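User: Design a sequence. Structure:
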């Protein structure tokens, strides 16, 4: 009997020792997993994607049962997306969605999986993921997914369908999801410009047969559009047109609103949002005044007449007006008559109070706006 009791005691002691060692080992592994996880997060926050990738993979491979795996899969998906490794990113988004149903990252993972599939050219799969994000409920990623579906329609050249989805995304994001709204605005603005300059017929396109005496400039004035729009929409290499030729004429009923509070220039067509651009505005000593103006002149490669009297010729490296000038005529006597919207030689000046009073734009944006708007376009500057 004594031997039996002794044997049982030995078993209990040994079992306790083994259990204790296991507990200690588990605690040690948990600490190692935690430290590696924290290190990976540090690299992630610093956007050191290569080191973050290695550290997260260490957690995933060496501590597959740790409590951090859900977030590790999520962050690896982001890392591979940032590294433009879309195929690998898609694999991790799928692992996250399959391994953690109901994950707090689920809606975002669905959108990002759709984005990866879209970039890989797997448009049907992308649409399935985007639709999944839409069906999972409201939120930023649901709106982003709507933008993704719009991109897919645009890729398929269903421009009007894409246009409607971008508008819906803007409406859903309004006042709730600023990042999603910015994305929808950017996509819609770029598409609107593409449609305006393309040969695509829209509901307001006028099909006009050229008559004797017609000129591109004259048709622009008659139909309230620009030479650039007529030439681009009809693929004209120059201003030469022939009698009997049928042209697509797209009226450009635009209004410009410059908002000093967020340094934006928003273009509206027939009262609806068309496109938004960032601008630089007057610094405190030369503030851009609020008020109403109209465009009175359009000049390519303008000469800059400095307040000091110095004349800087067109395309001179010191010419701060850059390649385009849209001169503004004030609609009230208390406003200056020397303001204009122009491009800039200093891209770093966009987005803050940096100029001597005139709204300035990135060169590409200024040239695009120049081609869109006509003499007489209303410009409103608001606080």
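Assistant: Done.
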């Amino acid at each position: 009997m004594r031997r039996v009791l002794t044997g049982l005691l030995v078993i209990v002691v040994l079992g306790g020792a083994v259990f204790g060692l296991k507990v200690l080992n588990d605690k040690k592994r948990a600490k190692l997993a935690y430290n590696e996880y924290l290190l990976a997060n540090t690299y992630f926050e610093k956007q050191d994607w290569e080191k973050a990738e290695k550290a997260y993979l260490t957690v995933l491979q060496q501590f597959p049962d740790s409590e951090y795996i859900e977030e590790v899969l999520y962050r690896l998906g982001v890392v591979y997306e940032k590294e433009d490794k879309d195929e690998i990113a898609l694999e991790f988004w799928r692992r996250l969605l399959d391994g953690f149903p109901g994950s707090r990252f689920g809606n975002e993972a669905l959108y990002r999986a759709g984005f990866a599939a879209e970039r890989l050219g797997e448009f049907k799969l992308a649409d399935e993921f985007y639709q999944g994000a839409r069906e999972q409920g409201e939120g930023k990623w649901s709106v982003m997914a709507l933008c993704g579906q719009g991109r897919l329609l645009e890729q398929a050249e269903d421009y009007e369908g894409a246009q409607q989805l971008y508008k819906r995304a803007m409406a859903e994001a309004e006042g709730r999801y600023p990042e999603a709204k910015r994305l929808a605005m950017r996509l819609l603005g770029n598409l609107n410009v593409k449609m305006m300059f393309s040969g695509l017929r829209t509901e307001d396109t006028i099909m006009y047969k050229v008559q004797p005496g017609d000129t591109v400039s004259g048709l622009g004035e008659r139909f309230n559009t620009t030479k650039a729009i007529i030439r681009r929409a009809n693929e004209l290499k120059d201003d030469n047109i022939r009698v009997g030729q049928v042209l697509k004429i797209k009226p450009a009923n635009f209004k410009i609103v410059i908002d000093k509070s967020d340094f934006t220039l928003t273009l509206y067509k027939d009262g609806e949002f068309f496109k938004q651009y960032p601008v630089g505005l007057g610094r405190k000593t030369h503030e851009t005044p609020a008020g109403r103006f109209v465009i009175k002149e359009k000049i390519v490669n303008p000469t800059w007449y400095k307040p000091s009297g110095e004349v800087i010729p067109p395309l001179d490296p010191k010419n701060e007006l850059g390649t385009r000038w849209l001169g503004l005529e004030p609609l009230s006597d208390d406003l200056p008559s020397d303001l204009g919207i122009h491009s800039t030689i200093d891209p770093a000046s966009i987005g803050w109070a940096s100029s001597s009073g005139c709204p300035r734009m990135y060169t590409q944006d200024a040239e695009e706006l120049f081609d869109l708007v006509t003499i007489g376009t209303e410009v409103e500057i608001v606080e």
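The chain has twelve helices and 14 strands. The two ends are 96 Å apart (CA to CA).
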